[in-house]
Amino acid sequence: MRHATGDVTSFVDRLQTLDHHPFAPARGLFAPDTEVVVARAPGRLDVMGGIADYSGALVLQWPIREATCAAVQMHPERVLRIVSLSDSGTSRHCTVPLEAIAPGGSPATYAEVRAWFAADPERHWAAYVAGAWPVLARERGLPLGMGARVAVQSAVPEGKGVSSSAALEAAVMQALVNAAGLNVPPRDMALLCQQVENLVVGAPCGVMDQMAAIHGEKGRLMALLCQPAEFEGTVPIPGSLAVWGIDSGIRHAVSGADYGSVRVGAFMGYRVLAELAGLRVYSGARDGHVRIDDPRWHGYLANVTPDEFEAHAAQIPERMLGADFLARYDGTTDRVTVVDAATIYAVRIPARHPIAEHRRVLRWRQRLEAFAGRTAPDPDEPATELGALMYESHASYSACGLGSGGTDDLVALARAAGAARGIYGAKITGGGSGGTVALLARADAGSTVEEIAAQYMERSGRKAHVFSGSSDGAAVFGTRRISLGGER
Known about the structure:
Number of domains: 3
Structural class: alpha+beta
Oligomer: single chain
Helix content: 25-40%
CATH class of the largest domain: Alpha Beta
CATH topology of the largest domain: Ribosomal Protein S5, domain 2
């Protein structure tokens, strides 16, 4: 079963007839005499890298065909009126008074804005949209003297591990930046979108999803060195290969406890390793965070070599109670998470994962580029090596505790099909703990991918949506300006 793709033309057509929409809050949303700015951003498949992004690894991301569209119209009324349109009868709306994000005209703190959205579960979803306003106000001087009308419509399914949140943030941010006349380069826009998710929504994600939604190019893998967000261009997939995704039907949430605890554990490991390596640590604030003078690894676990890590591995706790960690080490360098004193964290394995994953991704890109450069590539070599690296990555996720029965089953089915049927590799994507599995396969293996999805559905009883195809990111797409009388 396939999802709609987030076609901009269809979205614009819907905007033109919004006054007749069955969802009452959508009717009369936009003023007829003011232009509307439209943007589009895709979801992504995390082909390699995944949760190693917050540790500075290289990641390779595939912008999928499914996308989110956003329309922004500036309006003198001091509110943000937000409508999320859905074909499934689940449209929703939220009104955000500017006083909630800018009391007295001055931007509220991120903690205050986050608390306002979190106070009511019925409006929390709107933080992904409205968060662009306080972030741009605080970071880029966006005036908050006037409000806006916003419509969004997404074909990127939620909870599937294909970054529906980043697609939403990127589409809204692109439209708002253009509507407000701000000059924000694509890389900076992605970092601002990450701030929306980290500081307004309260989800401790890395930046790879937002960079893929903005910098992605159709039919190419976006390469990002997450130190903190160094865009290294895009890598073509050879015509003989293709990327697919199969949804496990198990909901993934980047804000869930598993992802957060693994991230905290990785930063705990870095803090311990820094002390073992004799790096200078500054911890006077006593707020659960420290600063480390790190000329050796520049603050990123991914820069630690496997040999360096293994030399100290026995001294890095396998597990550690948060209270014990804070008493001995004062805190971590990660400003978007906190160590909970009452939680027992895995430390050694979450810290080891990004070190090994970074090397896997470097090797993956190297082998893919060599494969693409062949004049008559063998369809099974080095594609089988690429697949083997994906299987290693999947196993490492599971070792961190971020696997799931459904995604393991899908990977097992892919492995059983094997290269003989055009399937080279598969791995869980993004934050793990459910969601979607990415597959690397021969370009003509679509029927095998569909068969794997069907087998999984029969075994599990869950729907297994297949993601295929690709599309451009928000920066490549740009924006369109329309009036209710037609497109400009």
